[in-house]
Amino acid sequence: MASIIADIGQVNNRLVVTRIRVRDPGLRTKDGMGVGSTYRELRSRCSIDRVGPGEGAFFARADALGISAAQATQAGAEQP
Fold first, then answer.
1. Distance separating alpha carbons of residues 43 and 2, to the nearest angstrom
2. What is the pTM of this model?
3. Where are the domains of the chain?
4. Are the C-beta atoms of residues 35 and 24 closer than 8 Å to each other?
5. What are the tens digits of pLDDT across the range 7-66?
6. What is the 3-state secondary structure (H, E, C) of 22-72?
């Protein structure tokens, strides 16, 4: 399985990266965020503007960073 997947799409007649998906839990931001981080950890590191169904069973959007984080939910998993 690929560690990083870049989706390419057309925007204003140009091909651009429209989304980057990270699947390798070993890849982390400088703050330690990555695959396997909890919603609580994400919320403690940045302002969350929206939450709800979307890219996965649950997603959180941080507009200031221009990112959304998808999280599969499990029975008993933390929800906002």
1. 27
2. 0.63
3. 4-71
4. yes
5. 999 999 999 998 888 889 899 888 888 888 888 888 898 889 988 886 556 888 888 878
6. ECCCCCECCCCCECCCCHHHHHHHCCCCEEECCCCCEEEEECCCCEEEEEC
What per-residue confidence (pLDDT) applies to 76?
44
Closest alpha carbon to 69 in 77, 26, 55: 55
43: left (phi over 0), alpha (psi -120 to 50) or beta: alpha
Q: Alpha-carbon dihedral of residues 49, 44, 28, 51, nearest 10 degrees?
A: -30
**Other Cβ atoms within 10 Å of 71 Cβ, number:** 21
